[in-house]
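2.7 Reproducibility. Because tokenized structures are sensitive to small changes in the input, we list the exact sequence used for Lipoprotein, including any N-terminal residues retained from the expression construct. No trimming or masking was applied before prediction.
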Amino acid sequence: MKKLLTVLGAVSLAATVGSTVVSCTKEAKKPNLQALKAQIEKAEKIQQGKKTKTAFEALKQAILEAKKVKKEEDVSKAYAAIVKAMKAFNDSADMKVVDFKNFKENAEKETNKKHSTIDAAVTAIQGIAKPEGVKTVKVEKDKDGKNIIVTFVVEERYNKVEKLELTFVKAD
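Resulting structure tokens (single pass, no recycling of outputs):
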């Protein structure tokens, strides 16, 4: 009985080692054209959302490059590139929102019975500190000369800010 158990133990050990060696020596499966197409479809479903335009453009460029691949020998490189681009996009910084509440409040104060002319109000608004994330602030009168239009140019990582239209009320 003892010999039988020893033999059976040795056989099962040999089988385990043999299967381990076989599974460890197997070559990693390389992606094929079908897998690349599936990865392209997955990448195309990604929306820009809160990510920067630059990050989204880089992802779209990687998709275009991957779509050009027609040969099996080019698939591995293209597959790796599109996976890398998707990861880079997902890991990229989100767009920030410009907080221009204080700017708006101060600009409204300048237009409400503080100045005798609209030009004086425009000059005063131009002197207000611009909010974080804003490159430039353009302040001008509208065509009728009754309202003041404020437009903002934001830095790349910031969401676009709509123009601000203020009604000028002359000081008494």
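The chain has two domains: 30-95, 101-167.
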